[in-house]
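Protocol step 4 of 6: structure prediction from sequence.
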Amino acid sequence: MESKIKVYVSSFKGVSTLDYVDTKSIGHPCVTSRHGENIFSQFKHLPKGALDGYLTENQIKVLDAVTKFCRENGLEYEVVDITSLNFAGKMRLVFKGIKAPTVSFKGKRIEGMPAKEDLKALISK
């Protein structure tokens, strides 16, 4: 079966603001919120080569938790972007009942934000 922890996410694709905004535009008053934050600061680029879009805040937290857990325990993980799958791949996930965000390992699943104990139980035999 699987030898890696799989993290299923559903990115939304759009124009990458970091690709199309020049340095003069970043300092423009329209880009700054009332609290002084840059409006682009809430977007997080995904791990290089993994995905081609952006994640919601909840999915970012799940991905960060799995990344940290795998780093601490010497495990490998794979990010599966549901939006990049073909029709048949998406239908397989529908039949399995997998929704984003889901963490999966050897047939066991955790939907939503996993706690460290949940991840330990997931990889235990």
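Step 5 (inspection) to follow. The longest helix spans residues 57-73.
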